[in-house]
Amino acid sequence: MMISNDTALMAHLLRRAGFGATRNELEEYLALGYEGAVEALLHPSEPNNMPDDLIRRYHVEQSELRDLPGSAAYWMYRMVTTSCPLEEKTALFWHGLFATGYAKLNQARSLLNQVDMFRRSGMGSFEDLLVDLSKDPAMIVWLDNNENHGEAINENYGRELLELFSMGIGNYTEDDIKECSRAFTGWTLGNAEYMSIRAAKDSIWPYGRIAWHFDYRDEDHDDGEKTFLGETGNFNGEDIIAIIAKQESTAQFVATRLFQFFAADEITEFGDKAIQAMMATYFSSGYEIRDMLRTLFNSDYFKSEEARYARVKNPVEMVVGAIRMAGSYQNPALGIENVSRNMLFMGQGLLQPPTVEGWHEGSEWIDSGALVERVNFVAKELSNVKSPGVRSIIDRLEADADAGVLDPVGLADGCLDLLGPIEVSEATRFVLVEYAARQGDLDLKGHQQGDEAEQRVGNMLRLVAATREYQLA
Amino acid sequence: MSTQTKSPGITLDYVKTVGIVNNGFNGRGFANPYDIIADNDGRIFVLNRCDPARASAIRIGICNLDDEYLGEFGRGNGSGDGQFTWAVAMALDSHGNLHITDEYNNRVTTYSTGGEYVTHWGNTGSADGELSGPAGIAVDSADNLFVVDQNNSRIQKFSVDGAFIATWGSFGSGDGQFNLPWGVAVDSDDNVYVADWRNDRIQKFSNDGQFTAVFGSSGESEGQFQRPTSITVDSEGFIYVADWGNERVQVLAADGSFQLILKGEATLSKWADEYLASNPEEKAERDISNLTPDLPAHLNTPYHISSQTEPYFWGPVSLTLDNQGRLYVVETNRHRFQVYQKR
User: Fold this and answer.
1) Which of B269, B295, B315 is facing A63, going by the closest CB pair?
2) How many angstroms separate the CA of residue A116 from the nearest CA in chain B?
3) B310 touches chain A (CB under 8 A)
4) Which tens digits make up the pLDDT trace of B104-154?
5) Of A219, A356, B20, B24, which has the fewest Cβ atoms less than 10 A away?
């Protein structure tokens, strides 16, 4: 099978900066050229996602956003229907890095507000993002900053801000943690005491949940002198973050985490060059995430063969990618919460990362149980010949075939092409062709929805979903 | 807390709040209530649409203004006799039967107010009498039923037992056209009003479907709407609109001129008081909290404000009047209704 390198490279970009692409989407991005496509992805415009009014009308649970399943499904709808996939992908990246979970909060609405903040600030300055994160009420409750008082500090947030959210362990002292924590005293949420009781009791009474907002209590803030990473002053939280942002270790941390999410699970010597370039961009741009991503996507490493299929798709990428390819769930539908539940079975429940460290990415996504869930879900989506995206694949196969007839090689290669293109090993391709050959040539002329010819395409798409290569991004 | 014009022809006084969230499968309280009706005997019927976790308990709860929970009925979630999937709205006919729409099963189900399942009717489709997403439903003085057939962009008129009589409307934004209409009401002269949901306006028709007026446009100003869901009209012709997307209620005069806005001013219901009395720590913190806070700019939308401001309407999906001039506004996201008295 001959795949143009431009097409293969664009498909690679869209698997990383998005959730994969239908052939129509791929062609739209190809028309922009590679760098043009990168810019389009980096500058989200109107996302054209399923409108809130429609969602709220039919899904009462997504109007109230009280419980976890409906709230995860609400984000699912956004990811499935957005025309700005990098915006959602970036939000997902920060959701995994600044991992905040439902279990302690019992407050899904505020978690979704946090995700909205990631959309708003997630591609801007890292310094601004850390300020927004420190003011995020879900984060405040998650790491107990509402218990961080001028008279008695609670170090949880201060510690994780340095260890897990910016510099990484080994780049600061225990004293720095204390001073950092002092600077964030008074950063709390409105009605903090009442909201804490409600969160702890999982109280929805009397009238459902009350969402959260940031509140600064000057009287509870320790305005005394602090020494942090060698600098001294009457620092408040913003001052601490300004110091964090200018550290080399912070640049290294942010660049590495972006690389591992968007480029490759493992860092090779070649990959490290991209990380170094991203670090340089971090400083030259004033800590702009958008500029770091541009550096990454345009790097020689990212465009190289080495970076292809160098990541295991996370469950969100698997599920959202399959739904977008199939074109299902374009309107409010019963059962969307079961889809987000499926991601949980695969090991990644939206709004419920396992700990503050987020999910363990890479090969850990694929234990045998998760693999079965992954393959089953995608196979079911892609073999449903009633779905508009699958119908579009069938129509393209017919149009591209000589007189509507595909030989076994044509069927296997055609499906691999239209689902990606996906480049597979010779061994994988052999299995697909052999499977197709069992029923000989496929005549798609005059095909009708759900007939045997269409089902043969559905079965081939199902089989592709089970390949090793389909598990990789 | 109502915003009024300089000399409104109508005054509404807040009376009380009834309700509490019901997290279980039966009993006192409400679960994502979607419609409300008060009968002439002081019984109040609340249709609980229920979220997926509680779908098996989809039901009609009965209470009164003395906060007595009188009972409930329904046969759960599904498409069997008396069951619902996505129940939307109710109409009460002169025989004491409730007609309840189900926009998923594309049918109307009838129960007596005593809770006896009577029948259901309606088939999926777009031919005369067929339904696609039946939403609002209202009854006129002759016991004809008007059903908002949302996905067919039309209103259909039926006899009380479901025999097709007439239909009007098509998709669009012109006079007499609809875009995902939701609520419907009939006034004392049997005129028909439709909440043309996605066109952000109210349309008025004669009983046989002749277009007579249109009120409102898209926006947040007085007399403008964001996705109006429900209407009711009093004996003087005042038009009450659940302006759902703006999280408020608006009252118009019979000619459509703006009269006043209600934002909601819920207080603790009797059931809420009882909950807090048995949870004193929670009550103590609540008592010193500010439940009408100022919010940061990024949360400054009607939806976000209402999600954080408990007294305000949040998801005011339906409203109705009783024969004493009381207005009932039911809020799906707050599991309660607020009562106002027309002076």
Assistant:
1) B315
2) 10
3) yes
4) 999 999 999 999 999 999 999 999 999 999 999 999 999 999 999 999 999
5) A219
**Residue B285 in contact with partner chain A when CB distance is under 8 A:** yes
Q: How confident is the model at residue A4 (pLDDT cuts 50, 70, 90)?
A: confident
Residue to test with chain B: of A66, A111, A194, most B Cβ within 10 A: A194
Note whether A211 contacts B51, CB cutoff 8 Å.
no
Please state the ipTM of this predicted complex. 0.97
Contact B95, B82 (CB under 8 A): no
Buried b (16+ CB within 10 A) or exposed e, A219-254: ebbbeeebebbeeeeebbbeebbebbbebebbbbbb
Can you tell me the distance from the alpha carbon of A175 to that of A181, in angstroms, rounded to the nearest whole number? Answer: 10
Which tokens go with B143? 């016991």
Q: Is B288 exposed, middle or buried (0-12, 13-18, 19+ CB in 10 A)?
A: exposed
Interface of A with B (CB under 8 A): 52-53, 56-58, 60-61, 63-67, 69-70, 109, 113, 116-117, 120, 190-191, 193-194, 197-198, 201, 203-215, 334, 337
Burial class from Cβ neighbours inside 10 Å (0-12, 13-18, 19+) for residue A66 reads: buried
- How far is A296 from A264, CA to CA, in rounded Å? 11
User: B230: closest CA among A57, A208, A65, A333?
Assistant: A57
Give residue-wise pLDDT tens across range A196-223. Answer: 999 999 999 999 999 999 999 999 999 9
- Listed residue (A310, A281, A311, A308) closest to A295, CA to CA: A281
- Determine the distance in angstroms separating the CA of A328 from the nearest CA of chain B, rounded to an integer: 18
Q: How far apart are CA B235 and CA B289, in angstroms?
A: 41
Residue B45 in contact with residue A294, Cβ under 8 Å? no
Of A5 and A129, more confident:
A129
Q: DSSP assignment of B206-224, as one string?
A: -TT--EEEEE--BSSSTT-
- Is the CB of B52 inside 8 Å of chain A's CB atoms? yes
Query: Running DSSP on this structure, what letter comes out for residue B338?
Result: E
Contact A203, B282 (CB under 8 A): yes
CB pairs under 8 A between A and B: 119
Which sign does the torsion angle of CA A252, A253, A256, A259 carry? negative
Q: Which of A109, A201, A206 is facing B307, going by the closest CB pair?
A: A109
Burial A93-119 (b: 16+ CB within 10 A, else e): bbbbbbbbbbeebbbbbbbbbbbbbbb
d(CA B140, CA B136): 14
Which of B285, B291, B330 should be substituted to probe chain A, the one whose Cβ sees the most A Cβ atoms within 10 Å?
B285
Best mutation target, B307, B330, B334, B337, to test chain A (most A CBs within 10 A): B307
Q: What is the pLDDT of residues A19-30, one digit of tens each?
A: 999 999 999 999
DSSP H/E element including B107: strand B107-112
Give the minimum alpha-carbon distance from B113 to chain A in angstroms, rounded to a whole number: 25
Is-contact A166 A253, C-beta < 8 A? yes
Measure in Å the smallest separation between the Cα of A69 and chain B Cα atoms. Answer: 9
**DSSP bridge pairs for B101:** B108
Q: What share of chain B is helix, strand, coil (3-state, %, to 5)?
A: 10, 40, 45
Mark out the alpha helices in A313-419 (DSSP H runs).
Answer: 315-326, 336-345, 368-382, 388-400, 408-418
- Helix axis angle for A368-382 and A336-345, nearest 10°, is 150
Report d(CA A68, CA B61) in Å as an integer.
26
